User: What shape does this take?
Amino acid sequence: MSQPVTITCIASAAILRGRFVRLNSYSNGIPVVTQATDGTSATGHLIVGVAGTAAAAVGDLIDVVVQGRVDYAVASAAIAPGTTIGCTADAEVKAAASGDFGLGTMLGGRSSTGATANDAVCSILLSGIRILVA
Assistant: This one.
């Protein structure tokens, strides 16, 4: 089984583990990220992945999964396995809608039934590439 692709980033604010992050800038060749606030094409936010570690403060180094399986993402609602996923205003996983950037695929919930729910931990597969959902 292959390992997820991760990069080290600098936090520009507090970031929760399992939430989507977006690119803010670069500092000495290291990406600077903040927790994502929108995944629609209208905002132009460059969502780069899911925080693998939390950041308590500005300047903390965190791991960000940019491609592959993430087993600690946070769902915003019930989402069926196989659904193309996007990002909510709270940096949670949602079912992608028209005008969203598709960031990957829902694999399932981490509960005993495999269901997802609001604020439930879920497994996703990040594609490593953003696609615009029509």
